[in-house]
Amino acid sequence: MKIGVLLFNLGGPETLRDVKPFLYRLFSDPEIIRVKWGPVRKALAYTIATLRRTTSEGYYREMRRSEFWKDEFGEASPLRQLTQAQAQALAEKLKARGRNVQTFVGMCAWHPFLEEVIDEIENSGIDSLVILPLFPQYSVTTTGSGFSILRKLIDKRPLFKKLDVQWISSWPDHPVYIDSFAQAIGRELVRFSSPAKVHILFSAHSIPESYVRNGDPYLEQTKKTVESIMDQLGRANPYRLSFQSKIGPVKWLEPFTNDAIMQLGKQGVDDMLAVPVSFVSEHIETLYELDILYKKVAKDAGVENFRRVPALNSDPVFIRALADIVESALGGKA
After folding, report:
1. Dist. CA 61–CA 65, nearest whole Å
2. Domain ranges in the chain with CATH number 3.40.50.1400
3. Which range is least confidently modeled, 4-8, 52-56, 116-120?
4. In what helix (H) or strand (E) does residue 264 lie, and over which residues does it extend?
5. So what's the architecture of 2-171+316-330 in CATH?
6. Are 254 and 266 in contact (CB under 8 A)?
7. Mean pLDDT, to the nearest integer, of 9-25?
8. Which tens digits make up the pLDDT trace of 242-252?
């Protein structure tokens, strides 16, 4: 049996010319801008994209100063390249386990769009499809949005009615995923002079508080990830969960990462390790916000040593976690 695995993420602009159309696509999502009438939502998305374009282009230029930036990333977001590398590594891992597998990459807000990859899947000759969002913690704004797009696309394709399709909604405390983060944190802790004194600051992408009140499990699942990682680390370090990347005037999950850094600095914390807990690939939230913006906040707050755990990308333990997750979804299927 030939198995297909679709990995999907948000996507990101690959050149500075892509920034405005990417922002328009992003804010046209009804789960991001909750305006029911499409024309009004699209008008708002166009306005936001126009107003934010210059600022966002500046962020993409700035993030090349990150110590984790690689020249091969190109002009803007490296998310597509990194996701394709994850897909290739996952395929190799599953093939080593005897699986006849083909992996696919799709993005919610930029190329290759989910619409594009569905055409590729339809012509691939697979017998079974596993849909694997690269968001460990479920939110309607990420996994839910992608699932909504995919279900509409699949319902229009008669071929998919014959496929065995498995939907993976979340994996916030998968033991190998937790181990991959714990090992990555451990590698960074030993770079401090006093590893046990380092304050671990977990930073996750924020979402509006109203989503959580309405039943979105993102906050609880993110907390579960953090607590599982700290269990794995033996709880030897002080730690805190914070949130970044707020957009718009509504109330978002707090504390904000910059506020948490300033508060910890005022409390006398000298050594701090930031962990991008809800991100599995390097992109603007890690390469600019954590590495450039929040590093400056830490310096201004008096934090002498501020470091950041790299995103998991194609870390072998993380790829093994993804393979295990896919295998679990397949169950006993050969």
Report:
1. 8
2. 2-171+316-330, 175-308
3. 52-56
4. helix 257-266
5. 3-Layer(aba) Sandwich (3.40)
6. no
7. 92
8. 999 987 678 99
